[in-house]
Amino acid sequence: MQSSRETWLVDVAATPVAVRVLPPGPMEVAVSGPAVSTPAPEEDAPASPDPMISLKDVRKVYRLRGGAQVRALDGLSLDVAPGTIHGIVGTSGAGKSTLVRCLTSLERPTQGRIRVAGQDMTSLSARQLREARRRIGMVFQHANLLDQRTTAQNIAYPLALAGVPRGQRRQTVERMLELVGLADRGASYPAQLSGGQKQRVGIARALADDPSVLLCDEPTSALDPETTRSILDLIRDVRDALGLTVIIITHEMSVVRQVCDAVSLLEAGRVVEGGRLEDVVLDTSSRLSREVVPLPAVPEAARSQGDAVLDVCVTAHPGEPAAVALMSMVAELGGDIASGVFETVGAAQIGRLAVTVPATQASRCVTALRQAGITAEVRA
Ligand SMILES: Nc1ncnc2c1ncn2[C@@H]1O[C@H](COP(=O)(O)OP(=O)(O)OP(=O)(O)O)[C@@H](O)[C@H]1O
Predict the structure, then answer these.
(1) Given 154, 234, 275, 306, which residue has the most CB atoms within 10 angstroms?
(2) CB under 6 Å to ligand 1: residues?
């Protein structure tokens, strides 16, 4: 899935309003209905595959000195389909790190079941667990490379620990360096690499032992926006090339927009919202929807005294016209488009428009827009 961001302000002085809706491509804006749900599967539709990662009612209680308890995970359930990139977002203390530690069995959950690639991680012996952990590659905020070793030696390190013979190690390292775009930097030391290159080495090291799952904990938090974009592109490319299932823990919605197929919002140790990214965004009543594609600000100059602001959501799919219809409808209602934000999410463009109308006409306008199948509400 590829995403790009385009934010624009409509020139409020111009009439009729000119809206630059889409990046290059034969797309037009279509109007979204108030509630878009995933269509019911057709009778002969193939059954969805077993999840690659499945957590069922997972609880993790930390007992503090003095007897107090912290419920870090409190009945968390989550399924991640094979081959998807699944974002996990949540505020500080929501339980994201605890989730990572439980997934990799660095912590045992107090209760619940965790399956990765069909294996019940909570019932493995120590030896089986070591094997199972090799199926999960980890990428962290900082690559934490060994400074005294070259790039190639850093990538080879987990293979050496796993007892992989030297010749095979060398071949794998070459393949990994090629995969992450550092074929000519195998002999460089970490001090000779940029932050983005170090993270590439971290990704190569995580993939060297051929995992089926890549677990990324804030992989771009320490990087500038351009490097972030290239690292997220790399994560998507390696997912495509190797058929990996990827979990990305992040606090950055731009990461979710750019690379995730699905997203879950963690709060107080449980998943409170989530689903396919496009479905989540189209459900404008959800918090995640507004976090992933935020409501546009309305410049003071675009709002006359006595105006109300309506929040309107539109979706665009290739070949579905509606931009002109929407704009003429807003004009007919005596309104104006004050500002808007468009994001590409999967095959759709999701737009949020702030429409100004005389306050006395606000509820009439909302009713008219909704009758035309447009998601609209008065901004509080
Ligand atoms: N080892 C521990 N002992 C006691 N409490 C813990 C321990 N680890 C985490 N907690 C508590 O569990 C809750 C969840 O913490 P966790 O670190 O998983 O959250 P988080 O979402 O990763 O936060 P952040 O984004 O700030 O890293 C918090 O209340 C935290 O204080």
Answers:
(1) 154
(2) 62, 64, 70, 72, 90, 92-98
